Amino acid sequence: MSRTAKFTRKTAETNIELSINIDGTGKSNVDTGIGFFDHMLNSFARHGLFDLNIKVEGDLHVDCHHTIEDTGIVLGEAIKKALGTKKSIRRYGSFMLPMDETLVLCAIDLSGRPYLVYDADFKTDRVGYFDTEMAKEFFYAVSYSAGMNLHIKEMYGENAHHIIEAMFKAFARALDEATAIDTRVEGLPSTKGAL
After folding, report:
1. Is the whole-model pTM more than 0.85?
2. Which of 76, 32, 35 is nearest to 56 (CA)?
3. Among 86, 108, 102, residue whose Cα is nearest residue 174
4. Which stretches of the chain are DSSP H helices?
5. Mean pLDDT, residues 32-61 taken together
């Protein structure tokens, strides 16, 4: 069974085309118009072993907000669509990722119930053309459109580039674990019988 999805979203602010293969090899082709964001999404694909293609046309003459938030919405929708019934998935995933002086924890429950808990402190406002406050907006958008319970915590860190990159990589590894098929699981991993 192929766990792939394509999703498009066009508004007055952004035009996004995205495809994902949950069971990929980490290949990516990303163009959002924001270099640092492209780097983060390529890292997400590579470290989660997701094949990811994203093309975004956004109102960057305003700022980066709509482009980053809407990409999160579309990525979340595509993840939800690719997982389909969620039959035999592990459901839970977590990863603690070190990056130089930084350590970030990410934990996921693909419960169908969206919730974000986010704890990070940045000493700078921007990394390239990426506003550091947009990291939270991105993960909020992903968690709510995918229907996942997502916890991201900066345990410690100094460099904003390292902190955000550790977030994206930890998210990738945790999501890879949560979406993995466990042949011991018959049906859905839930006592309710629904996710």
Report:
1. yes
2. 32
3. 108
4. 35-48, 65-83, 134-146, 160-179
5. 98
